[in-house]
Amino acid sequence: MELFIYEHCPFCCRALMIVGLKQLDVDIGIIMEGDVETPTRMVGRKVVPILRKPDGSHMPESMDIVHYLDQSVAPALVQRGGDDAIDAWVEHAWPLMLRLCVPRFTRADFRELATPAAREAFVARETRAFGDLQALLDDSDKLLDELRPLLDELEPLLATRGEAIDESDFRLFPLLRSLTIVKGIGFGANSRRYLDAISARCRVALFDDRAA
Q1: Which of 43, 120, 137, 185 has its CA 20 to 30 A from that of 73?
Q2: Treating both helix axes as pointing N-terminal to C-terminal, what angle do 169-179 and 62-72 enclose, rounded to 10 degrees?
Q3: Are 190 and 159 contacting, i.e. CB atoms less than 8 angstroms apart?
């Protein structure tokens, strides 16, 4: 099997989590930014992640991939459902996370941005979606001030989080991992402990070394 991703993508992170959690023999392929033809040939549209299954067919949609891979080798580890409070927190925090992280993603060292053309395509795509990326970077302090109360709200939600992995982890961890690219993010103790624990269990590296 082969999993096609963008390294920066939080939805791709979900698929990487299950590969690492179950230590599956899955090759990782990179689709370059600006490459519309490759994913369209596979699944009919430009999307990541995409899993090439053993029969040669292709599967998009991150959570479909998670459950397919989880069930491919017993025992299944991902509990269906999750924590409603954490899911609501993710929905609330997601737009703010994007405004902080997307401008930094466009400037960081990711394999899908390894050529000038790929980076230019990414910048153009995200500018269409979010407007002036430099202006978002210039607003970082204001955006961080908006985020910090949300991070404070997350702390008690993680205080009693157990060892079991459920669908909420596949929503929360990719968001928090994305935020590690933001310098001075100031995670609380529970959030930092959660990030490090899931990163280690799922063998998915954080972005602390690229923080800006």
Answers
A1: 43
A2: 120
A3: yes
Residue 131 contacts residue 138 (beta carbons within 8 Å):
no
Query: In what helix (H) or strand (E) does residue 86 lie, and over which residues does it extend?
Result: helix 84-105
Strand runs labelled E in the chain: 2-5, 27-30, 50-52, 58-59, 78-79, 165-166
| Residue owning tokens 């096609």 | 4
Task: Kindly report the pTM of this predicted structure.
Answer: 0.96
Amino acid at 33: E
Give the relative orientation of helices 84-105 and 116-130 as an angle to the nearest 10 degrees. 130
Angle between helices 140-159 and 84-105 (to 10 degrees): 150
Q: How far apart are CA 75 and CA 25, in angstroms?
A: 16
106 closest CA partner among 115, 119, 89, 91 = 119
pLDDT tens digits for 5-18? 999 999 999 999 99
Distances (CA, A) of 16 to 6, 118, 153, 196: 11, 22, 27, 15
Could you give phi then psi for residue 90, rounded to 5 degrees? -60, -45
Q: What's the pLDDT tens digit per position in 140-182?
A: 999 999 999 999 999 999 998 878 899 999 999 999 999 999 9
